[in-house]
Amino acid sequence: MIRGVIIMNDQGKPRLIKFYEFQPPEKQQELVRSIYRVLCSRAENVSNFVKVDSLFGPDVRLVYKTFATLYFVFIFDKSENELAMIDLMQVFVETLNKCFREVCELDIVFNFYKVHTILDEIILGGQVLETSSEEVASAVDAISRSLPLPLSLCAYVCALVSSCEWVLRCNRHILVQLSLRVGKEWQFHDSIYSWLAEMIATELW
Amino acid sequence: MKGPSLMDSLFQRSIDDLIKALRLTPPGTEPAFIAKAIEEIRLEIKSTDPQTKFLALQKLTYLHSLHGHDMSWAAFHSVELSSSASHSHKRTAYLSAALSFNPATTDVILLLTHHLRKDLSSPNAHAVSLALSTLSSICNPDLARDLTPELFTLLSSSKITVRKKAIATVLGVFKQYPDSVRVCFKRVVENLENLDLGILSAVVGLFSELTENEPRSYLPLAPEFYKILVDCKNNWVLIKVLKIFAKLAPLEPRLGKRVVEPICEIMSTMGAKSLVFECVRTILTSMSEHDSAVKLAVGKVREFLLEDDPNLKYLGLQALSIVAQKNISAVVENKDLVVKSLSDSDINIRLEALRLVMCIVSEDNVMEICRILISHSLKSDPEFCNEILGFILLTCGRNYYEVIFYFDWYVLFLGEMARVPHCQKGDEIATQLIDIGMRVKDARSQLVHVTRDLVIDPALLGNPFMHAVLAAAAWVSGEYIMLSRNPFEIMEALLQPRTSLLSPSVRAVYIHSAFKVLMFCMYSYLRLNGDDSSLPSTLIDSELVSDVELDDQNMIVTNGQPLSTSSVIDHLTQESILALVNLAEINLGPLAGSNELEVLERSTNVLGLIKLIKPMLLGSLDNGEGDQAKGELTASETVKMIFDSCSEDLGPVSVNAQERVPIPDGLGLKENLDDLEEICGDVKLPLLTSFSLVRPQYTEASSNADSQGKEESEPSSESTSLLAEHRKRHGLYYLALGNTMATSNDYPPAHDPKDKVADEAEDLVKLTEKSLITGKKPSQSKPRPVVVKFDDGEVTNVTTDRTGIKADLISGAVNKVLLGDEATTSSSSRRKPPKSRRVTDESSAGIAKIDQSEHSKAGSKHHGHGKERRHQSSAKDKDHDHKDKQKSDSTAHGKHRSRHRADKALEAQAPVIPDFLL
Known about the structure:
The complex is a heterodimer.
Chain A: E1 2-9, E2 14-19, H1 25-40, E3 49-51, H2 53-56, E4 61-67, E5 70-76, H3 82-100, H4 105-110, H5 112-122, E6 123-124, E7 127-128, H6 133-146, H7 151-163, H8 165-170, H9 172-186, H10 190-201
Antiparallel strand pairs in A: 1-2, 1-5, 3-4, 4-5, 6-7
Helix pairs in contact in A: 3-6, 5-6
Chain B: H1 3-11, H2 15-24, H3 30-44, H4 50-67, H5 75-82, H6 87-100, H7 109-120, H8 125-138, H9 141-154, H10 160-176, H11 180-190, H12 197-213, H13 222-231, H14 235-248, H15 253-269, H16 273-286, H17 291-306, H18 310-326, H19 328-333, H20 335-341, H21 347-359, H22 366-379, H23 382-401, H24 407-418, H25 426-439, H26 444-456, H27 467-479, H28 487-495, H29 504-529, H30 544-549, H31 564-571, H32 574-588, H33 597-621, H34 627-647, H35 669-680, H36 698-710, H37 717-729, H38 769-773, H39 778-781, H40 805-819, H41 844-860, H42 864-874, H43 880-894, H44 896-909
Helix pairs in contact in B: 3-4, 4-6, 5-6, 6-8, 7-8, 7-9, 8-10, 9-10, 9-11, 10-11, 10-12, 11-40, 12-14, 13-14, 13-15, 14-16, 15-16, 15-17, 16-17, 16-18, 17-18, 18-21, 20-21, 21-23, 22-23, 24-25, 24-26, 25-27, 26-27, 27-29, 28-29, 28-32, 29-32, 29-33, 29-34, 32-33, 33-34, 36-37, 41-43, 41-44, ...
Protein name (chain A): AP complex mu/sigma subunit domain-containing protein
GO cellular component, one term (chain A): endomembrane system
InterPro entries (chain A): AP_complex_ssu (IPR016635), AP_mu_sigma_su (IPR022775), Clathrin_sm-chain_CS (IPR000804), Longin-like_dom_sf (IPR011012)
């Protein structure tokens, strides 16, 4: 099974850490550091495998690949095929590319949760689930459609509404309609509703 | 207006804000920034507003996962948020649980059970997937037990993604709670016939994990796997099926015969390298008796080695090392490519090639290979250079130097290795130098020659990695000084000023070696110039060479250098020996005030000796007699005594040597031990490693034994067993029992071999005085120098491979499900798949029924305990109808003992489980 997936940049900063067996956070950081030490000492155009017996015990292998500024690292045991793991890594990167349109490091930095979602569609509990990047991308799409607005946008609308308070004060109907529409279309989150309800109940009205 | 809550949610930092701010923090201030952010989060997460809590948890999970910040304190908040109706809240909560919960210690996991159950049975596929992936991450025995029914339902879900995930989750559940195998296994097996590739891939993957531990249980499923192997064209699925067959084929030879053909076909027709490699590996590991297939596979390996892709080259070498264990010729065939890989730019490939090269080392080619390797090591970087040296030392030293034929060459080679510029293997080289000195007599003269070169070279003293080698060299020079051509130069080398660069422990060895050299020179001098009065007549001989050769102190001079000692004699004049003594005195004098204990002590020894012999030397120079005569006599006797004690041949010591020492008469072992007990009280005495396992029971056991000792008159069976136990634990205080060693009255030398027949010297080599006195040269009568070794004790214990208890439980359950209780395992590989008439169409009520019907079986098997626990704790279950079932079940369990027989009878009558496999 796959023991872990790590994405880190060429400075050794982790961008994604997922172990399929529990590791305490300090241990995770330590492992990332030791893996980075090994990886950064490796030249280009050498094989993608690294011996990690000292870190993970016997029979555990590590395969890595560099994409632009990022190292992708898969850690797995002897029930996986080494070359298949490289293929799987390719699938993962392709999926990221599909989901973020020309993925770059920043996408992965700012989309911590989405990257986890993507990974969860490919690997579950250390088992490979899906090896087609199209399938994964569409599954991830379906999930994000089921989610409400990105939260920053939500907060933005929130702020907009509150700043326009005085305008809205003049036209209660518009406010009610706007809020209802926003709520319906974006499945707007509860706090706005409660806020509106409060406003309705208090002196604003 | 509820301001704070609104303001909180309005101005709360989102995760994006946090990441941005983190990226903007100047280097070095990050920990402070994170600490501040955590403080914020601690406040926010307590909010009653789910949105605020959600954002806080999101940030915290991020910090936990990527910045290693502990978030175990927030475990409860994850649980709380997971009950939220909003899917995004749920998603974050579950992810934080999956990333941060420790299945073994996080106790709030239990609180998550209910939420997980709800989500597992939710109509929303996303929620189900989420719950499944969380479950697989944090599965513990309790969760596995409680959620097995839900998982069972999902295994036949109509949504492919859900079913796939359920199958993948089953693995963790089986591992944590083997009893779930009984419930779910049939449904898992059904999925083997599914036409959807995703599901097939998941279920085959699951089986490849399961067969990893206990493959035998899955033999009955071989026909299904075979069908997939032949029909399926998907690389992923095929790889996993090959993994399964690699485990199954060794168990059932007919299976190997059957699958080897399709595997070869796949290997030659399919293009994907991963699949081809898997075929190669399967054939080489599990079907090595099919020669034609192996040949084909080795051919593929060669193709891999010829590829430019370093990954393929690396894997090809690895595959070769699999063959090397059984079929060394395959490696020899590809020797050219392997040796070429030694100079690859990739360290992985080089190491792998090195390992392979070491595999093909034999008596015939060891010299050639070592020559190639050492020239490689000179060219390569320090790291790889030391890898090479380490491998050479390991391979040549393996099994008492079994590949070494010419020890003279090997000793020279060791010296050469020590001089390799990057060499850091000093310790290993030193060990082998000394070891060969002790074990291989015929190599000693060459060894002395090599070590002389090492000791004399002043340049080597500056390299700290060389110190271990130098210590060994100094020891060898001192110990076998009688084989040296020129003891004087050795003495000078041992006392050279640059020895101050050595570490104190090495220096002590140098000084002690100097002591031995001095002794030898003195002895030889006295021998040369001695008269009847000063030395016992038996030892006087006109020719020192023959004397030394036939000396009763086991000294040997090899045939190769008959003149070695005679050259010494020429230089042994009074002046020269006096110069030697003076040299030692001058150099060691200052060391008598050294701060280092070892150095101080050794040099004081030498100085003491000098003090003793110097008057004698001076006296004989002055030609003085009378007063001096007496002193000379005693001095020369002392010299002789010390020399005798030094020149006793040191041999390797068997681990079991202690046992062979008989108990001397009048040694009251028991009394002493009692005293020891009183004096030391509860002091834990250092135990030998072999006894360390019983350390916890130490005091108890010994006090028991003590009390036994006091009332020793009654040899009840219990007391003797306790005594025996005690004896076993504290074996180091006991010498061997008297009667076993009754044959020998004397202390045998520690290295005295048991076997007295020299010709059968395969394991033990006889070193009797007789053979030496008659002057037999083993090197002439035997093809290879003898290496002293023992057949007992020195062999390292191979740790027994233990399969996990859990795995046993799983396979036990699998066996039961697959075979029923009556079905026989033999030749079951030809059977048909389970049709599971019983379970498919029934839902949770059905499961409970299975539980009940299988309960009787479980009672009689080793699952009884796990079962019991299950019933006890699941009685709390909130699920109503489930609870009812369980209740009746657990009451049944209460009467378990009384009903046991009845159960068995019932089982015999009850409709026998249909044989799924027929």
